[in-house]
Amino acid sequence: MPPLTPGPPSPLSSCPVPGPHTPPFPHPQRRLFEKKQRRKRQEPLMVQANPDASLRPRRPWRREERLAGDIDPEEKKEESESTVKNSPLAAQKKVSKTPEGEVGAGHSHVGSSLSSPSLRLGEDMEAYVMRPAQSGHTVQCRISRDKCGVDKGMFPFYYLYLEAADGRKHFLLAGRKRKRSKTSNYLISLDPTDLSRDGDHFVGKVRSNVLGTKYTIFDSGVNPERRNFFPETARIRQELAAVCYETNILGLRGPRKMTVVIPGIDAQNQRMSVQPQNEKESLLSRLQRGASQGLVLLRNKTPSWKDESRAYVLNFHGRVTAASVKNFQIVHPDNPDYLVLQFGRVSSDRFTMDFRFPLCPFQAFAICLSSFDGKLACE
């Protein structure tokens, strides 16, 4: 499946690659897979960023540094003045102080202020990642994928960092694909060292159908069908989003087509509660029936074909620099110029994720995790 290409120039910072060094002699199948992926990313039909986009180089993350602090160890050498002392483990419940202001003054971005809602000292981290972004502001983040280790090639770990106004990176969320599950299941936690379903910092999950074409995003509440196994006080889970993927009119040779549905926001700027008691009340069922009252329907922006480069292109404003079928931009159908979410590749295991109101950090990260997942019917 061809990837989406990033757009016009704008300084971009690369994401670091996490984790320890890969084994010196990778499995032959692994080498074959990586070779195939490299060849796939060179196909002209993949969505790409603007080839003229200028970048500000960054270096890899390391697993041990991620757990000890948020700053890239290589960047620490280059920019010693911006050393970060806050640890993701310390950020589970409380967040380090970050002054408000513009995120990356040198970055041109999608038509709105780049001021991120600041993480305030003493703020509850779970409340922050579940709260919709401040209206009129773009939140710039970065996702780093860790595929090193015995089984991380098949079940990688994903780490979400907020790019703060002062250049620091603050750990927000971690996700991993669950093993021994009938369908793809991604668990999301506030603790990068504990990504279990029963962990104290589990905040939600992403679940797919068998084909990997439909995804539902839940918070940490209980499945209504299993409520008898939990105390009466247990809260029934909410559905926070649903994502549908389909092949477009170009078939297997074109970019992915996405539809995202999320609960609406009320007059008090609170997310409307969607707590289905059965499958018929789910977001996906309501989407299929056209029962969209109280919901927000979003779609991916269709990339344009560029004859000069013979590739599909999207304007990522310098935030995406590598071609990938995973690259996308989500917009409101009635206002295609309002970018709600954009996601794309910077290098093999580094990605940028920028989002705006009405999404919250958790929803945006979960939607991006669905893009990482393999899709039998779309590729």
TrEMBL record:
Coiled coil: none
Bias (Pro residues) ranges: 1-27
Compositional bias annotation for Low complexity: 101-118
Residue ranges of domain Tubby C-terminal in the record: 130-373
Cross-referenced Gene3D superfamilies: Tubby Protein, Chain A (3.20.90.10)
Main location: cytoplasm
Signal peptide coordinates: none
Bias type Basic and acidic residues, positions: 62-82
Subcellular compartments: Cytoplasm; Secreted
One of the record's GO cellular component terms: extracellular region
Region (Disordered), start-end ranges: 1-118
Entry-linked InterPro entries: Tubby-like_C (IPR025659), Tubby_C (IPR000007), Tubby_C_CS (IPR018066), Tubby_N (IPR005398)
One of the GO biological process terms: protein localization to cilium
Domain Tubby N-terminal: 29-65
Entry keywords, A to Z: Cytoplasm, Secreted
Pfam family, one: Tub_N
PANTHER family: TUBBY-RELATED (PTHR16517), TUBBY-RELATED PROTEIN 2 (PTHR16517:SF24)
Record family assignment: Belongs to the TUB family.
Protein name stated in the entry: Tubby-like protein
